[in-house]
Structures are given as C-alpha cells and as structure tokens.
Amino acid sequence: MTKMTKQSGAISNAPVSETDPHSTLGETSTSAAFDFELPTDRAGTDSLKWDGPANELPMWVADMDFPTAPVVAEAVQRVAATGLYGYTHVPDRFREAVSHWWGERHGYTFAPDEVLFATGVMPAISSTIRKLTTPAENVLIQPPVYGIFYPAIRDNGRTVLENELVYENGLYRIDFDDLERKLADPQTTLMLLCNPHNPIGYLWDRETLARIGDLCAKHHVLVLSDEIHCDITRPGLDYTPFAAVSETTRANAITFVSPTKTFNIAGVQSSAVIVSDPVLRHKIHRALEADGVAEPNAFAMPATIAAFTEGAPWLDALRSTIAENADTAVDFIRREIPQITTKVPQATYLLWLDCSAITDDSTELAARLRSETGLRLSEGAGFGGNGDRFLRMNLATQRSRLLDGLERLKAGLRAQ
Ligand SMILES: Cc1ncc(COP(=O)(O)O)c(C=O)c1O
Q: Percentage helix, strand, coil, to 5, in the chain?
C-alpha cells in the first residue's frame, strides 16, 4: 500500500510515510458540545450487545454505547409521539439527503436519482449477490474482513474467493499479483470491497482504489463497495469513495452506505445503495423489491434525513471522542500490555489487537477473557485471514467503561 490520500477537512502537517499509513493520523479536537460521557444502560432492553450477565462488559459488536445525535432522536420521537406507524414510502428528501452528504463531506457527487433505499447494508449486498451472480460463481473478498461477508456469499450458494491481506511488520497491504490472478478467473464475478476496512481500520487511498478499479474493469468484475464505516474517520482524515476515483470506478461500482454506524441507529434499519449505471440500478432496485428489503419502517426516513442534513456537528464531536479513546487505549496497551501490539485506526471505532505473541487461537483467548474477567471482545477468527491471532475491541463507549475494559484485558492477560 502507498501513502494515504487525504481528501478534505483539516489535514495535519505530519509527514506522510511511504510505509506506515498510521503516521498520517490527523489531529483530535474537542467534543465539548455533546456529552459522550452520559451513562447509558441497555440492560433488559433485548440489546444484542448488552443483554448478557450483569458482570460482563461487552466491547464486541459494532454498536456504540452513545445515544444518537439529538437531532436524530428528536426526529424519531416526533414520529413515535403520533402513534401512527403505517406504511412509509421513500421520499425524494431521502435521496437528496444522501446525495448532499456525500457531495459535501466526501467530494462524491451523484444525482439523487442514483440512490436506492434498503433496510440494511447486508440485506442489500446479499440481494445484489443473488441478482448479479449465478450459483457457484466467485465473490472475492480481502480477509481479515467483516465476517458476515462469508455467509452472505456462501449461504447464497456462491463461492468465497479470498485475496488475503498480507501482514508484515504490523502493517497490512494488498497482494496485487494474487488479486489479479483471482480476478482473472472467469468464475469471478464480483469483488466485495470494504472501504474503510473493518476490522483493520484502514482508509484505502486513491491510488490503491484506482489500481483495484482498473484490475476489476480489466477482468469484468463488478465492485460492491461497502462504505458503511466511511464517516467515522480520525479528525483530519477523510475516506475516498471508490466510485469517486475515476469514470472507470464509477461505472463499475455499486456503493453501500448507511447512517446506522455513523449515528448509532442500527436498530432503525436504513441504508442507501448508490448505482450510477441506470441499467444496473434498475436491476438492483428490482432485486431489493423482490427480496422485500426496499421499504422503510416508520422511523427510517425521518432518522436518516435528520442525520444526513443536520447531524454533522454531532458526528464531528463523536469523531474527536473516538480519536481520544483510541489514543487512550493504544497508550494503555503499549504501556501495560506489551504482549499485544496495536495501531490507532484511521477509521472505524474498532481496535484490532495483534495477540500473536500470546496465541494463534483467538477464539479460545476471547472465551477465556470472557469467563475470567467478563470482558467480551470479538474473536479475530471470525474475520478470516490471519484473524485467528487477533481480537477486536469496540472503543465507542464512555471513558470509564473504556478504562474498565482495558484493566480487564490487562488482568486477563497477566498470566500470559
Ligand atoms: C463492513 C460492514 N458492513 C455491514 C455491516 C452491517 O450493516 P447492516 O447492519 O446495515 O446490515 C457492518 C456492521 O458492523 C460492517 O462492519
């Protein structure tokens, strides 16, 4: 991988390293206008994350512990107060809000008409895979990567083809020779790109994306770009939308985005699919309709429109908070848990912990940490690739919980 490209926003003056993308981390600023220390309690609410034993501290699934932006909560509350929760259609304001947000924040301009609604990124990706491939065709992914990509391909009867990221000296890079070989296989129809990349927290730079784009176009492989984590970047850094790189990538991409990670509203079930090519867009629209994932619930539209039209100040404060948490966690681990190595993520609120000095069985390690300390982390094995030597820690929580989690991690590894 080459140096990170920064697109917009305040850029730090730090020198750009050719080898270490993390040397380009931006600057943090204050988040005083919003309260990210407010204690929250989801016990007894059927929360996927929090519905466990009282002594447990869940820092696994990518759900934040912060209430959403006040403007989003107010939009939901306004609908809730009416008692009227009938069928909802997708208004133009949704498409305009998505188009405006990506144009303003990320320098990716597209007409509102290019935006489709879906009830989630994974339902939309799964639907797209079914529509655009036939059984047994290959869908290429780059592990370690979001684990649900595997069942989204396999459970649809398609074949997972892995272009595993190469890990050297604590850094990941793409093996382009391997990538091209696999894209050249006539059975390979789609590439599922993760941009930014969960769980390693990388922003793929413009040059890397252009190279992927050119190879995919050359070998007639369409790119599904999952950009769900794109808004949560380190202050001073921005992501590069794959489709915005060139006319080639734009024509050969389907982009999946959502307000749900950014604004912590996964339970509202809202996402957008951006497709420039009109023929392809028609196909995807029909696929989403056929699979019953094209109709919003009563809260999805007001929440999404509020988020993407009024949510920027909250998001910027959130990004600062996450950056501070990441700095705290990385400092703590370097000082107190030297058996683990880790790097501040450029994007996402997820910290990828290299435990290779301790184990090559992260499932066993995660289970033992959970039973001995109550700390629940994601086992890296679920992400494929070299993930069996990693754990993933969710940093989007109140500082007291973060410190508690770090102390539990230290205590759990003391015997190692
Ligand atoms: C890369 C990636 N894609 C998709 C999802 C899930 O998206 P949704 O809840 O909209 O299906 C996640 C959740 O963590 C994710 O990390």
A: 40, 15, 45
Q: Which residue has the tokens 């915005």?
A: 244
The DSSP letter of residue 8 is: S
Residue with CA nearest ligand 1 atom 13: 62
Q: Per residue in 107-129, pLDDT tens?
A: 999 999 999 999 999 999 999 99
Domain shared by 321 and 305, yes or no = no
User: Strand order in 350-354's β-sheet?
Assistant: 350-354, 390-394, 378-379
**Most ligand 1 atoms within 8 A of CB, residue of 257, 261, 297 to mutate:** 261
Does residue 331 form part of some domain? yes
For residues 214 and 194, membership in a common domain is answered with yes
Residue of the nearest CA to atom 14 in ligand 1? 62
Q: Which of 49, 117, 122, 297 to mutate to test the pocket of ligand 1 (most atoms within 8 A of CB)?
A: 122
Q: What is the pLDDT of residues 250-275, one digit of tens each?
A: 999 999 999 999 999 999 999 999 99
**How many domains, the chain?**
2
Q: Round to whole Å and give the CA distance between 414 and 372.
A: 11
Distance 242 CA to ligand 1 centre (A): 17
Looking at ligand 1, which residue's alpha carbon is closest to its atom 15?
A: 146
Residue ranges lining ligand 1, Cβ < 6 Å: 62, 120-122, 146, 194, 198, 226, 228, 258, 260, 266, 271
Final residue of a structural domain among 248, 281, 310: 310
Residue 7 lies in a domain: no
Model pTM score: 0.92
234 by Cβ neighbours in 10 Å (0-12 / 13-18 / 19+) ranks as buried
Alpha-carbon distance of 412 to 371, in angstroms, equals: 10
Name 52's Cβ contacts closer than 8 Å, sequence gap at least 6. Answer: 58, 376
Question: Can you give the residue range of the structural domain that contains 332?
Answer: 21-70+312-413
